[in-house]
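In the current project phase, our protein records have gained a structure token line. A sample record follows, to show the layout:
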Amino acid sequence: METMGYKNITKVYEKTSQGKLLKRRDNGVWTLDSFALNVLTYMAANTYDYPNPTGNEYRPSRYYDGGWKKIAKSFGLLSYDAALAEQVGDETLSKQRENTARTRISRTWAQLIEMGLIRRYKGAYLGENAGYVLLLGDDEENAEVIENAREILQ
């Protein structure tokens, strides 16, 4: 998938400036959830802008179904030091890194859903990734994005 969502990224930063990506720390202080920001920005960069400037009738606007692994690879979460792999074992370390990355990204998606910034449109099954609609606009625009996904994906 080519990078295409520069307008979506602008919307992500608008949501960030509105405090939509804040999380509460143990000491009660609210702080930016930078990992959630990175995940949402990646998703936004890899989805069509709204309205879809290409007129692509097969891919909805603001719809991400690239999966956790693409995000993990892009963030370097699956990389590791060769010396460490020698100590632990390459296959063991690789599996550990994958499990950690999958868990971290899945939890972040759950947080983004709770924050109202994405909506799971379809679940993962039999080798297909889950699909998420990015809710980066106001209520009316988000309803249109969801309807666009419904029309194209049915």
Remarks:
- Helices lie at 6-17, 34-45, 67-74, 82-88, 90-114, 139-153.
- The mean pLDDT is 90.
- The longest helix spans residues 90-114.
